[in-house]
Structures are given as C-alpha cells and as structure tokens.
C-alpha cells in the first residue's frame, strides 16, 4: 500500500510537525520564518510533498535544529509506533482501497494522530493474530466483508458472463457442461488439460487443480473430481481469461496468497464460473415456480439444480445472488460445514452474512447447534452411507428455526453430499430471514406454516440446560451470566443497596 518514498515523506512530515508543535510555533509563523508558504508546509507535514535540500536547511534553521536530524529516519519515542507500522507489512495486508479508503486518506489520519491511529491498527492486527488468524485468513475475512458490502452481487461479472454465454451456449442447453468448457479452454485458449491421480502425485493430494504456467498453460486436474466440480474448475479458468485477470493463485485452493488482490481475483473468477454454470435469466424465471407453490417441493428443487452442471454450493450461491438482485431478498446468511462420517465434529468452513442480526464470526471452534438442519442433514447423510442405502444424490432438507435468545426466525434450505477429493461430506445452507420480502416470495410458508425448531448458535452459548442434543457444556453462556450478575451487584452497591 505504501511505497518507500511515501514512507520517507510521511516520516519527514511527522517529524517536522512534532518539532514545530513542541516549540510552540504555529504553521503561519514557521511560514514567515522559512519564507515558505503555509499551504506548502501543510502538504509537507501531511506527507504529500518532500522539500528540496536547500529548503530543508531553511526549515532546520527556522526550527533551531540541523539538517541531519530532520532527514534522518530515526524518530522520537512518540513516533515509534508509526515508524514500526510503516516498516512492517501490515499496511500491505490491509486491502483498504477496496473499501473506499485511499492510501492518502490513511496517511492523513496518521499525520493527524500518529500514535493513536497506528496503535489502533496494530491492535486490530494483534487481535486477529491472537485468534490464530494467518495472513490468508485475514484476506478471506476482508473478502467476506467485501462481498457483504455488495450483497454478494456484482453486475459487471454478470454482464461478462452473459456475453460469454451468448457466444458459447447452445440455444437448447440450460448451461455448459465440463466437456464443452474443456474444449473451449483447449481450442480457444490453448490449454493442455492433464488429469492426475493422487497416488501418483501425493504432493497434490486434496487439490482440485494446479496451473503450470509457460508458453502453453498446463492445467493439472484431479481425476477424483465429479463432473460438476470439473465444470466449475474449467469455468473458473475461463473467468481468469474472460475478465483479463493476471494476478492470480495457481492452485484451486488459496493455500498461500501473495496479496488480497489474488484472493479477490480468485473470487471474481469463481463468481464468473457460477454465473456461466447457472445463468441468471434461467434462475430468475424459475423463482416463482420454485417458491410460489402451496407446498415446498425439495425434489423439484433438486431436479432444477441437476438441470445445470453445478455443485450444490455453486447453486446456492447463485440462488442467493439472483434472489438479492431480482427478488429483493437481502437478509440471509450462507454456511458451509464439513464433516467426516463417524466423527462428532462439524467444522464451519465458509460463511457469508447479509443479516445484521446474526454473527458466527469467532465461533468456528465451537460446537454448533445439533438441532440445526445444517448439521442434522450431515448426520443423516452419514447414516445413509453407513447403511449402504444412499443413492448418490444430494440430500435436500428445509427447516423453520427460531433463535432462542433473539426470537428471530429463519427458513433454512440445506443441501448435503460428499465433497471429493478430500474425503468428507459437506452441507451448504441458506438461512433466509422470515421477513415480509421473503414471505411474499415463499408462498408455501403462508399456506402451510411450520412449527419452528428452537435453536441457538453453539452449545457453548446456549442456555437450554435440558437440551438432549447438547454436545458441549454452556461455558460461554455461564460466563456471560456471571458477568451480568456481577454488573447488577456492582450497580446496586453504587447506589447504596446491599444485595
């Protein structure tokens, strides 16, 4: 974010401003002493300008110091936090530009209150590190916030995907399959597709694809992928080319990102892949049929999903994107859980939250509510697999839930199936707030109201002590109760009441 020249200008300006203030000299007075304009001095102090040598000599004389002290990068104790900040890579880790904060804006804030602002930024970084968040996780948190800021809908990518489909999608087909996408990559973009077996390439175990750059690009593709996963893999490669993205990760899973730009570009290419696999128009036209009937029909939704060449996760993301843009459904959240059959641990691996009342950030290592369909569907899938009667199709379940602490209700749509090549099952779920907007779309809710299932976020935060599905003691709930009781006692003592 900041170049070396910016750092030098900023440190010089901060030192000049600090020295002037310590000597009790106003900006206009320094302008008179040095013969430089007040506006020019203001630009220097904000790190926007760096004076020539003869002007630095003049400023040093006006402030009763010497040239070497002013130009030295050594700073006073008061300015040490900002020097540490500028010399670290923290500012490079913060993708502020994507949130409308220009580098110059931050530099100005730093120049106005260097110690407080730099301490604040360092505090945020320390909090993230104390929670075990590495750089990539920090980038993904920033990406999630970026998606939420835009309601996870990006018209420019939708337009590009529409143009691509106009060129390549046959009129009679609902979407492109992996064979068609592979052919386009090979014939139009000169890719070589090279499938690999994990037993032959153990170093690539768990990866879906790896791009080998060169005069001719080689895409190594895991042979264990299902057709829908292959379609997404090829569609994302198409996205990189069609959106003219060059700064990108080479592996399917961003194991180590060099910048937030790479994480964002990976998301944009992935969004493009979803948009060409599940076209916006087809999904928009089907919303009334899927949600407007007198009864909810999960089989109809699965048939519709399988008419495209998309994984359940891609399909639910597209459903949320189209419902946001075309149906005005703006309050929901998305969760993905991974689970190994036979284990009692359900790991939250992806979250997107467009509901301001709901927040699972920071609860990833806790035990999620075992009443939630996002978890019970995985238990059901594992049971079917163990008994040998699973038919290979994704499970589709729905549920009306009410959060015990807030009373807020959601309609939950959950899908679950295995997720090769990693050997676990995954559930993906959309949680729609039961507000007027969603009820006007989901007519089946009015015709056949369902009794809500009472849930909580995690066992650690749940006060239902008689819950038979509890997987862990309510340690956070108990700590919160103790703190509340302590506050009440202290408040009474403050008013002379002996509890």
Write the layout of secondary structure elements.
Elements: H1 4-22, H2 27-34, H3 38-45, H4 53-62, H5 67-71, H6 80-87, H7 90-93, H8 103-112, H9 114-130, H10 135-149, H11 155-168, H12 178-188, E1 192-196, E2 209-212, E3 218-222, H13 227-242, H14 260-277, H15 280-291, H16 298-306, H17 312-326, E4 332-339, E5 347-353, H18 373-387, E6 395-403, E7 409-419, E8 424-433, H19 436-441, H20 444-447, E9 453-455, H21 475-494
Parallel strand pairs: 1-3, 6-9
Antiparallel strand pairs: 2-3, 4-5, 4-8, 6-7, 7-8
Helix pairs in contact: 6-9, 8-9, 10-14, 11-14, 12-13, 13-14, 15-17
Largest sheet: 6 strands, mixed
- Percentage of residues assigned to helices: 40-55%
Number of helical stretches of at least 4 residues: 21
Apparent shape: globular
Oligomer: single chain
N-to-C CA distance: 56 Å
Structural domain tally: 4
Q: Radius of gyration over alpha carbons? A: 28 Å
Main-sheet strand order equals 5-4-8-7-6-9
Low-confidence stretches: none
Structure description:
This protein has helices at residues 4-22, 27-34, 38-45, 53-62, 67-71, 80-87, 90-93, 103-112, 114-130, 135-149, 155-168, 178-188, 227-242, 260-277, 280-291, 298-306, 312-326, 373-387, 436-441, 444-447, 475-494, and strands at residues 192-196, 209-212, 218-222, 332-339, 347-353, 395-403, 409-419, 424-433, 453-455. It is of the alpha+beta class and 499 residues long. The chain folds into 4 domains: 4-130, lambda repressor-like DNA-binding domains (434 Repressor (Amino-terminal Domain), Orthogonal Bundle); 148-277, Arc Repressor Mutant, subunit A (Orthogonal Bundle), CATH 1.10.10.2910; 280-457, no CATH class; 460-499. The strands form 2 sheets. A 6-stranded mixed sheet has the order 5-4-8-7-6-9, with helices on both faces. Helix 8 crosses helix 9, helix 10 crosses helix 14 (260-277) and helix 11 (155-168) packs across helix 14.
């Amino acid at each position: 974010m900041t170049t070396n020249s910016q750092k030098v200008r900023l440190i010089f300006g901060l030192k000049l401003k600090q020295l002037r203030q310590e000597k009790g000299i106003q900006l206009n007075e320094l302008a008179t002493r040095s013969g430089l304009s007040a506006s020019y001095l203001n630009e220097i102090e904000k790190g926007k300008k760096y004076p020539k040598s003869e002007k630095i000599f003049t400023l040093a004389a006006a402030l009763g110091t010497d040239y070497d002290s002013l130009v030295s990068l050594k700073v006073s104790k008061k300015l040490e936090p900002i020097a540490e900040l500028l010399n670290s890579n923290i500012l490079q880790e913060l993708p502020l530009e994507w949130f409308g904060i220009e580098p110059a804006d931050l530099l100005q804030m730093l120049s106005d209150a260097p110690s407080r602002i730099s301490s604040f930024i360092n505090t945020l970084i320390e909090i993230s590190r104390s929670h075990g968040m590495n750089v990539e996780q920090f980038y993904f948190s920033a990406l999630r916030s970026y998606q939420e800021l835009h309601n996870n809908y990006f018209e420019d990518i939708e337009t590009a995907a529409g143009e691509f489909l106009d060129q390549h999608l046959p009129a009679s087909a609902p979407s492109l399959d992996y064979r068609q996408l592979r052919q386009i990559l090979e014939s139009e973009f000169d890719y070589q597709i090279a499938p690999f077996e994990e037993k032959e390439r153990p170093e690539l175990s768990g990866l879906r694809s790896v791009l080998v750059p060169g005069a001719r690009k080689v895409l190594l593709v895991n042979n264990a992928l299902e057709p829908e996963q292959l379609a997404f893999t090829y569609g994302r490669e198409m996205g990189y080319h069609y959106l003219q993205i060059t700064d990108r990760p080479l592996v399917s899973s961003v194991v180590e990102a060099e910048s937030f730009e790479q994480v964002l570009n990976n998301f944009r290419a992935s969004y493009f892949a979803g948009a060409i696999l599940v076209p916006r128009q087809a999904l928009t036209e089907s919303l009334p049929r899927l949600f407007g009937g007198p009864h909810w029909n999960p089989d109809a939704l699965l048939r519709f999903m399988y008419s495209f060449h998309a994984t359940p996760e891609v399909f639910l993301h597209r459903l949320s994107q189209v419902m946001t843009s075309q149906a005005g459904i703006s309050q929901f959240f998305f969760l993905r859980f991974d689970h190994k059959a036979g284990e009692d641990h359900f790991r939250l691996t992806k979250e997107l939250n467009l509901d301001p009342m709901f927040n699972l950030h920071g609860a990833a290592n806790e035990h999620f509510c075992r009443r939630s369909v996002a978890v019970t569907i995985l238990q059901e899938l594992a049971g079917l697999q163990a008994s040998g009667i699973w038919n290979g199709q994704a499970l589709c379940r729905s549920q009306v839930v009410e959060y015990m602490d807030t009373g807020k209700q959601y309609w939950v749509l959950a899908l679950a199936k295995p997720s090769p090549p990693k050997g676990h099952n995954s559930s993906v779920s959309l949680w729609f707030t039961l507000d007027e907007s969603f009820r006007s779309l989901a007519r089946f809710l009015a015709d056949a109201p369902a009794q809500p299932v009472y849930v909580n976020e995690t066992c650690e935060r749940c006060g239902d002590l008689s819950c038979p599905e509890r997987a862990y003691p309510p340690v956070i709930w108990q700590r919160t109760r103790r703190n509340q009781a302590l506050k009440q006692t202290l408040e009474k003592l403050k008013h002379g009441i002996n509890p």
